[in-house]
Amino acid sequence: MYVTDIEIKNIRNIKDLKIDFTSKSRSMILSGNNGSGKSTVLRCIAMGISDEDSAASVLRDMSGEFVKKGEKEGIITIKLTHYNGQKLKIETTIKSLPAFEKVYQKVYINNNSIYEQIEQERFPWHKIFI
Q1: pLDDT, tens digit, for every residue of 78-124?
Q2: For residue 49, which of 122, 9, 107 has the smallest C-alpha distance?
Q3: What is the pLDDT of residues 26-68, one digit of tens each?
Q4: Quick one: which of 73, 78, 74, 110 has its CA closest to 91?
Q5: What pLDDT, on the 0 to 100 scale, is given for residue 130?
Q6: What count of other Cβ atoms lies within 10 Å of the Cβ of residue 111?
Q7: Residues 6+ apart with CB under 8 A from 29
Q8: Which letter does DSSP use for residue 53 in this model?
Q9: What is the model's pLDDT at position 11?
């Protein structure tokens, strides 16, 4: 299974970012000054391909606020394709609450070009290698 797309909204210094990983080059370089968001993108990928409990654990291990200042929530959307062609999507939402941030997650499977939400237990987590 491989990541085909990531979309990050309202996370740290990122307002709205979309990355398409389906380029023929199969390589990507993240570069920029300190504080420009390189590590944030990598953390979002780690959280986005983890189940809800593991994503919450990654969030707890980070210092500072993860949701962009002034926003109520941040969203990480990861699209995956299995080697057999099956398409999946994981949507991780981080809500900014008064005392802490909380992780919520929805998972989807693509049936006939439409993403349908499924239960976490039906998602093929075991096929994702992190």
Answers
A1: 999 988 889 999 999 999 998 899 999 999 999 888 999 999 999 99
A2: 107
A3: 677 888 888 878 888 999 999 999 888 888 888 888 778 889 9
A4: 78
A5: 61
A6: 11
A7: none
A8: H
A9: 95
